[in-house]
Amino acid sequence: MSQTRNRLPKRGRPLDSSPLNKTEKKHKDAEAETYCTIFQEVILEGEEGQDAAFCEGQCQSWIHRKCSGLTSQAFEKICESDDKYMCPYCLLSMQNCELKELRNIVKSLSEKLNQLTGSPPPANASKKETVQTVSTPESNTDIVMNDTSNDIAATVTSLINEEREKEKRKLNVIVHNLPECDDPDPSNRKSHDISKTSSIVDKYLSVPTTITQAIRIGKKREKPRLLKITFNSSQEKAAVLRSCTKLRKSYVPEDVRRIYITPDLTPKEQELNKTLRSQLAEKNKNDPENSPCLLVGGDFNFPDISWQDGYAHINPSPTYGTDANKLLVDTINDHGLEQLISVPTRGNNILDLILCSHPSLISNVEITPGISDHDAILYCFELPNKPLSDKIDHPIYLYHKGNMEGVKSDILDFQLQFLSSNPYSNDVESNWNNFKQAINNAITSHIPQKPPQSRSNLPWITPSIKRLMNRRTCLYRKAKSLQTEKAWNDYCILRNKITNCIRNAHTKYQTNLFNKNEKTNHKNFWKYIKNIRKDQHGIPPLNENGNTINSSKEKATVLNNKFQSVFTQENTTDIPNCDSTPHPIIPDIAVSCDGVQNLLETLDPSKASRPDNIPTRILKFCAKEIAPILTAIFIQSLTSRHIPNDWLKANITPVFKKGDRSNTNIYRPISLISVCCKILEHIMYHHIAEHLNTNNICDQILENLPFGHKETFWEN
Q1: Which one has a higher pLDDT value, 659 or 478?
Q2: Of the chain's two ends, which shows fewer C-beta atoms within 10 Å, N or C?
Q3: Does the pLDDT of residue 349 top 70, yes or no?
Q4: Which CATH superfamily is domain 170-284 in?
Q5: DSSP string, 86-142
Q6: Domain edges within the chain
């Protein structure tokens, strides 16, 4: 009771009266004595310090304000509030019961999860949890407080919040790239978004819907903001999401084709979706035909198999019978394994074997004395790194969609301008840069291009198979939605048809790889072999002076320094002077326009672009227009004794030979220089060779060489 005689707490009532309504205030019966539950003292009406509140929990009793720990402000709020008041002991007891129920639910769910996944129960499942007990004054009931109650409560709260987020979004979808209306009136903009979305859904998706709300998300910017659409029912939302792929069809206008519709995901679903996308992107970097790397080692105890150069030869009358030995050899061959031990491991026999499907991953194989009668085998096994990105670093030109005649016309215009402007008045570098710029401008103007893409696609998957696969996806979604036998039968029939088509296409592709009539068949063959290999692609970590080098830039620097160190640096300051020679003097090199044109027309258009980025296909197709320009540049280069800087550059590829892959000494460089520079080299080589053969100079030199050095002369 409060100090005012006629004022009681809103939730207060005498013990012998009926429960009060939430909005009522009644005075305690003066004749009945009411006791405080905690200290068993009589609550005196109208006395100072006798404020009391009635607990509507389990105890159903009166408690002094001071005994319950309530402040004056809290007591006043209880008097004015319609909420229930519970004493600390009843509140703690109720929370403990709820926590017990939550623990039982979590425990049962955990047991079901372990049964489904086959995972063993936690190691500490049988241990008793640490508990704390608190006794109430009126009973001996112990209130259990688990140390993990906070974690359980947090988990339950998170799940409840997630369900609330899903409930708020169950009728929503997100529309991307829908143009916004510039009307300053928000209601007009909202009407425009609803009408535009409805027309797209009705016209292209053929789904009757009723849109109840449309909201733009985020601040207005250059790109259209995301549009949150709310449908009238979940069935309409599901139908729209099932049919939204129709917006990608070719008959749909291009501005509508840029629009796509996605579900309205909760923050947790967005994070999960982001994680799945990153995992999928990481997985897609791997080879599509990802096969496992098999490594088997141990004591096989087959002394009658001799391993010569990695091949198995069964000796006559083997100890364990021919069938057992043949079974081991067939198993090794069937799984594509290679045996790497060639030294006896016990006596004169090779009993301990190391079998691996990727032998290039094993290095430094050594045989050392063991603790038994068998020798021990020590080797290094390099775990396959993630395949290096096979992404192309230059744009891909679509020549079959381009205007090649337009390219030829632009180059012809540049040729006339180049020859009429007296090119010999400029230096070689300027003329070359102008020519290269003209080629690039012509290609950019008339040849479309696409951005580089990963080379992980399967070449035997034809466009017709891709269309069937898209149709299969639609049938699967339809069958999953309808759940009818006919829909599932249609999906299964098409799925089996696609499987047979892919197998037949793969077999046909493999057969064509061995077709000798194909001129470029060897290139496709080795490309296919590279894709199905699981060895390390590119350069593995290198060992330089005891340091391991992992970054690509450092690897390139180390290999470049190694390649430079093995080349001879000629001393150009001390060149011997030949006063006289018994041989005729070589005439000046003559460069003709017809000869340059013939060399350009014999180029292979499939060759890759070199450091100057001039496609070989353009050089061949426009040979007649380009020949006069290159002829002038070649003559000027020979006359001035200078060559363009692009001709001094080369794309160098390190090629592994044999041995330890981390050793920089076993790599050999392969250089790709400018095609135009190679044409000039060919002209010079042909001129020198013709002079030597015409005057029999080679025969005279060979006569003076000692025996055994003639082959070396021709090789050099």
Answers
A1: 478
A2: C
A3: yes
A4: L1 transposable element, RRM domain (3.30.70.1820)
A5: --HHHHHHHHHHHHHHHHHHHHHHHHHHHHHHTPPPPTTTTSPPP--EEE-SS--PE
A6: 92-165, 170-284, 295-381, 463-532
